[in-house]
């Protein structure tokens, strides 16, 4: 029963942190991810060198291990040094996907117009997608922090519901 309370309180605290300090918490999580990748890459490289030193016959998939280890360490180091670059990159990709989806829907609506009238309402959703895509591309980090605040609110709500439901058990 104590696990329910711990999980609920942890979710509320983490949700509040995400809502109060969205930019900083995104940076910290990216840096934690970078640290994890760097450490895993380092451990992988050490294990590879240890096996090589023991003259253990390396299998085919182990021959690419040093390259993967270096790649993990490099990506980890970049995440540590430039967390916002990666956040912005991911958000710009998301914005481009929204624009592509909007263009595809506009094209589908135009194609279907050949077969009959299309109400103006059907143009609303692709328009919202296109505007959202442009906003995400224009302000990638601000958009990410907005989404982060929303995730924090959902996490805090989950924690509250967890506490309420565990008090009834």
Uncertain spans: none
Radius of gyration: 23 Å
Whole-number total of structural domains: 1
Going by helix content, strand content and strand pairing, the class is mainly alpha
Strand fraction: under 5%
Helical residues, percent:
over 70%
- Label the overall shape: extended
* Count of separate DSSP helical elements: 7
Mean pLDDT over the residues: 89
What string gives the helices and strands in order? HHHHHHH
The rounded distance between the terminal residues' Cα atoms is 8 Å
- State the total count of DSSP E strands: 0
Query: What summary fits the major beta sheet?
Result: none
Question: Overview of this structure, please?
Answer:
It is a single chain. By secondary structure, this protein is an all-alpha fold. The protein is 86% helix and 0% strand. The protein contains seven helices and no strands. The chain has helices at residues 2-20, 22-53, 60-63, 65-81, 83-112, 124-138, 140-167. The relative contact order is 0.18. The model has no long low-confidence stretch (mean pLDDT 89).
């Amino acid at each position: 029963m104590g696990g329910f309370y711990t999980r609920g309180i942890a979710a509320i605290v983490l949700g509040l942190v995400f809502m109060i300090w969205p930019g900083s918490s995104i940076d910290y999580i990216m840096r934690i991810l970078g640290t994890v990748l760097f450490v895993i890459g380092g451990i992988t490289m050490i294990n590879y060198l240890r096996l090589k030193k023991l003259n253990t016959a390396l299998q085919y998939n182990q021959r690419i291990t040093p390259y993967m280890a270096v790649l993990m360490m490099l990506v980890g180091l970049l995440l540590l040094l430039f967390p916002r670059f990666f956040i912005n990159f991911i958000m710009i990709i998301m914005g481009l996907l929204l624009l592509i989806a909007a263009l595809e829907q506009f094209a589908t609506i135009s194609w279907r117009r050949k077969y009959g009238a299309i109400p103006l309402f059907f143009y609303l959703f692709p328009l919202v997608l296109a505007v959202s895509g442009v906003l995400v591309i224009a302000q990638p980090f601000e958009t990410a922090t907005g989404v982060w605040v929303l995730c924090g609110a959902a996490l805090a709500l989950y924690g509250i519901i967890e506490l309420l439901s565990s008090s009834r058990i």
